[in-house]
Amino acid sequence: MYQINVNTNTIQMNNNFVDKHKLVETTVDSMSNYPFVLTPPMDSPDSNMRSPPSGSNSPSHTYIPQGVCQPLYTFPIPMDQTQGFAPYLTMGEEPVERFRFRYKSEMAGTHGSLTGKNSDRSRKQTYPTVELHNYDKPAVVRCSLYQYSREEMIHTRQPHAHRLVRKQGSEEIDDPHDIHVNPDSGYVATFHSMGIIHTAKKYIVSELEKKNKKLKLEDVARNERVCRPLSKKEEQEIRSTAEKESKSINLNIVCLRFEAFKVINNIYFPLCPPIYSSSINNLKSALTGDLKIVRMDHFTSPSRGGKEIFILVEKVTKKNIKVRFYELDDEDNEIWSDYGRFTDLDVHHQYAIVFKTPPYKVLDIESEVKVFIELQRPSDGARSEPKDFTYTPSKIIHNRKRPRFTSSSYSSSNFSSDELPLTINNLPDTQEYNFPRPVGQTFVGPNLVVNSEELNEALRHDKINSAEFEKLCNSLITSEPIQDLYADLTAEDLRSLVMDAPKMIDKKPVFMLNTQLPSAHYGCTSRSLRNLNSEEQKIVTKFKDELVAFVKTNPPKNRMAMMLENLFENSAYISENMETTLHMLVSENNQTYLPFLLKLLFKYQQTALINMRNRKGQTALHLAVECHNLSAVDHLLYTKANIAIQDLEGNTVFHVAVIGNAPLEILKLLCMVTDEHGCIDTINYEGLTALHLAVKSNNIAATKMLCWRKADINAEDKKTGDTVLHVAVVDQRLEIVKFLLENPDVNLEKENYAQYSPFKLARLLLQKEVPVTEQIYELLENYMRKKGSFQLVVDIKEEMEELSEEEMDIVSERLKKEQPMSPDDLREKYSQVTTFTEDCLNEVSDILDKSGTWHNLAELLDYGHLLRTNIFASSKNLLQFAMKKEESIFEIRNFLENLDEFEAVDCIDNMVNKLVL
Q: Are residues 93 and 194 both part of a single domain?
């Protein structure tokens, strides 16, 4: 029988209960440290709660260490009266150190349960076991899942958000798990058939809250002698504690907590302090295993796969390693997985792997798919910490569903009498609009206002051509700002514009900030990206002609909107590069027709067309930023151009502005748009944010602007894990380092994939003896001391000083941005070398003679029969004989690599690199 749930019925306690039991008042912590602590953790140096040695007559622990604060409330612990010693628990069998935490979706079927540390597959399995001492009555021993910590704290560890599930038939029961012990069982409790289920991040708070409520209900019953529901205040305290714990919980390490209780009227009274097991590490996590991805040269792949990727890793065995891709849904259930393609020859020196990506389950995706990549060791199932990976669409696909209209279709006979306006003057007068601009921004360029009367008069002439129409647009554009056109739109109208976002875009449209920035004047020089070719010029001319012919018919609003959609989506008006007329006008920096076209799009609520993308995935806003056209950028932003769209390289307009060193005024305009979805921190397909690019290019003005706009200063480079501070330190950007240290959010302790913090990197780079590096190091050291991280500074210094000169050289090489040579390139290079140089032959021979592995090399070369005749006196004789037999240098090199003779391999590689430039 297992007593798990708390009885919530009211219990009438015996009035003489307290008189019949000697009670000890035991201190507990406040709710902020709930559940309550009796002694320091067992692994703490200050802890007296050690299991006594076998045969001991008394425990070595005490209940209340010196200096413990006064209790907020207490609960009784019955004492054994016959022996005079307090009961205590000891560990009989610790759990295994590493165990796979499974997701809920993986629990179907049979899986291995949590075994004991001394389990051996060749004999009977053991399981976590505890024994209760100094007690001779029936009791209950409980096992629960708790957080593991090595901190020297006097309060207990908190419950863990993961679930400790125990199989009972076909049912799965959550912790706590109770086992009844008595003299017949020897007071030994063995917990078998238990598994750990990984709790998804979105459920951590609720799981902690649920567990702490159970514990609080038991505590209330003990203290008040009655079971009652929790008050709202108590529930709020538990909720607050759970939210706080969720921010620091380690999801990869847990431990077991064991307690002993005496049960009276369904109320559990502790017999002794709890004890804790050693840590149980998640077998799938790099934090508790040896597998680790240190660096990737790409973190994206087309959905069809086949992209070659280089990754640097911690030491792996080529015959016992896989690169695994997988996808999780919102519930953290795995919904797809596959493996990278590579051979043993693609594992370079045990520290690099070259592989090709597998195809995604859907070959023709229309938007990015976020997945994960990890290393997997088949022999024991160990996995590395997963890294983000993205599958991208192979190409941009435009929908062209609407029928093409021609100018012959635009006669008044095609419209009913109620659809046809009497005159074009029925359109609202644009001079009456008053659309508010963001505070602090001025506009000195062209606007998008057209006088209705003059347009009506001009359109009376049937033979007006595109050139004349362009001239008309130019003459009718005044000095008023674009937003004045739409001041008479109601708030409801503006909201409807927001809802009419293009369906091809996942993110919602953006809004304007009310924050003041320095005015952006049109002092920067626009540049034409390119001149339109003859075919593109024909498209633009045809576009104008069709638009003029249609406008002459005085169409109603819905017909005008349909026409604009047709002109943008019909293949007849799209170039071979999949560019619309809007793209072409921006590319050639057309200052005349572009504002007028944008006015029409905004006027008839067709702003979705502004965000159409060309073959490179670029919108008109991408091109406007690229050609430094401040006026066009301003017009496009006011007509709801989407700043969140990424091109086929993953770049948003923020990336484009930094890459193209656009004038600061353009970046200011982009930063004035309300960023509801954090697109300023979007990662491009090189793994970089716009802030990373600004720091790499030493653009301190752009760096300051992006930081002002709350760009994430601690965002990771998806290839290396570097933050912008890592980049600034490595690239020796002194002024940028100074600026970044002024940001209160900067994290000097954040490590990259190679486990180097910015301060560790600065310490490592001191060996270069560059004055700038020394200044950067002093800045970081002083900053950390001021922040109270003096001990961390000392620890890092000691850690770095423990590295040998050889290890420092290896680490320095790892910091270089060189990629390993692919197997094909390596084979081609070796094909040009047929013999050893004298120096290389002597050096490799010395290495092999010392290790004795040249005998193994002889076997691999099929010279084993000669080896047994003692024909080879040394490794040099073997290598010389191999050269006479025209054995491949490349084959010898690979055999040595398989024998882990990496020093010899490096020597041969260096020889080949010198001979073949």
A: yes
Across residues 756-764, what is the average pLDDT? 88
Please indicate, yes or no, if residue 469 is contained in any of the structural domains: yes
* Structure tokens that stand for 914 in this block: 């010198």
Query: What are the tens digits of pLDDT across the range 490-537?
Result: 444 333 333 333 333 333 333 333 333 333 334 455 666 667 777 878
Indicate the residue type of 369: V
Same domain, 520 and 599: yes
| C-beta of residue 128 within 8 angstroms of C-beta of residue 177 | no
One-letter amino acid of 543: F
Residues 223 and 184 in one domain: yes
Bridge partners, residue 168, by sequence: 171
Choosing from 331, 359, 392, the residue where a domain stops is 392
- Token digits for 319? 């015959």
Range of the domain at 132: 17-51+68-281
For the chain, the straight-line distance linking the first and the last C-alpha, in angstroms and rounded, comes to 77
Domain membership of residue 748 (yes or no) is no
Long-range pairs for 233-242 at CB < 8 Å and ≥24 separation? 234/31, 237/31, 238/31, 238/34, 238/209, 238/212, 238/213, 239/205, 239/209, 241/31, 241/32, 241/34, 241/208, 241/212, 242/205, 242/206, 242/208, 242/209, 242/212
Q: Distances from the Cα of 370 to the Cαs of 337, 613, 681, in angstroms?
A: 12, 22, 16
Please report which helix (H) or strand (E) contains residue 739, including its range.
helix 734-741
CATH number at residue 181: 2.60.40.340
- The whole-number average pLDDT for the span 388-395 is 85
Sign of the alpha-carbon torsion through 634, 637, 643, 648: negative
3-state class (DSSP) for residue 53: coil
Give me the DSSP letters along 76-126.
Answer: EEEPPTTTSS--EEEEEEPBPSEEPPBPGGGGSS------BTT--TTS---
Q: Are residues 326 and 239 in the same domain?
A: no
Would you call 414 helix, strand, or coil by DSSP?
A: helix
Q: For 542-690, where are the E strands, in sequence order?
A: 673-674
597 touches 379 (CB < 8 A): no
Size of the chain, expressed as the number of residues it contains: 917
- Which stretches within 168-317 are classed as H helix? 204-224, 232-246
Three-state secondary structure call for residue 275:
strand
What's the confidence (pLDDT) of residue 324?
96
- State the pairing for strand pair 163-168/194-197: antiparallel
CB atoms within 10 A of CB 346: 21
Examine the domain organization and report whether 442 and 518 are in the same domain. Answer: yes
Torsion of CA 871, 877, 883, 889, to 10 degrees: 120
Please indicate, yes or no, if residue 519 is contained in any of the structural domains: yes
**Radius of gyration from C-alpha coordinates of the chain:** 36
Domain total for the chain? 4
- Residues 249 and 136 occupy one common structural domain: yes
Query: How many alpha carbons fall within 13 Å on the CB side of residue 38?
Result: 23
Per-residue DSSP letter, 397? -
Q: Do residue 232 and residue 372 come from a single domain?
A: no
What digits encode the pLDDT tens for the residues 412-432?
A: 334 443 443 333 333 333 333
Residue 746 lies in a domain: no
CA angle, corner 440, sides to 526 and 735, nearest 5?
70
- Structural domain ending residue among the three candidates 346, 369, 392: 392
Is residue 378 located within the same domain as residue 453? no
